[in-house]
Structure prediction request, 298 residues.
Amino acid sequence: MKLTGPLERVLRVFLTDPSARRYGYDLMKAARLPSGTLYPMLARLHDQGLVTSEWEPSSGDAGGRPPRKYYQLTGEGIRVARLELAQAARTAAPRAGHGTVRPAPGSAP
Amino acid sequence: MTAPSRTPPAQRLADRLIRRACHRLPGEAGDERYREWAAELPAILADPDVGSGMRRSARALRYAAGISRCARRLGRPGGGPEPRASLPARPGFPVRRVLVGLAIYLGVVGLVVGLAAARPGRAVLLPVLPVMVAFAAFCLIDLARAGQVRYLPKWGWAIACLIQIPLGGLMYLAAGKVPATRPEPPAQP
Prediction:
């Protein structure tokens, strides 16, 4: 899985409360992504088994609106998302941090 | 379901766009996707975080446009993000040409409005009129002789050229006209 910026944002939103079920527009707003980016990503995560979806029961508290589809990370999804985000944080940290000395370009043996 | 008469026009239009987009997807999947995506519209149009109804409508239409892109992507057999690899012959939407067309249009409008403001009482449109008619005629003749056009059927472009002179004609030349086959794309240094 290649962690792109939009994917990272979606995973962060999911991980703020892994037990919450979220519908598409909710995710769009929280991750600040357009629908054309979000839904293909959800489809991919779904195919990889990292996200499940379920229909809202139609006789709920919907107040007359059509039932929505809700998305949620699977157990595996939570694991992978935490791992990926941690890895991203690790690779980003040394750049801003201290101590790592990088050889000047061209000086490599 | 809300009563159809109470459905705001933006929702109806967005709904229709989504329905059309879902036709690209194979039967069952398209149906389910349509129900999923259309069900988000009420939430967008009642979003308390977006100030005016106008902006909510715009957001709903943007949402539908994104869905259309998404359905195109999901509808491809591989589902992958490479739309153009298999279709090298078809060039992408000519954004720059359309922008140039729009700029020319705005220039013409600005010129006419400026002239009208500078010389009140004079019929400034009179000399422009034959130019416009000639331009529309040029576009129609070009359209009639073209082998194939893009984005709209020929009759669609003909109507566009006629009802919105000169914008329709400019858009036809910019976007609808299939560019002559160039021998080779210029090599980038």
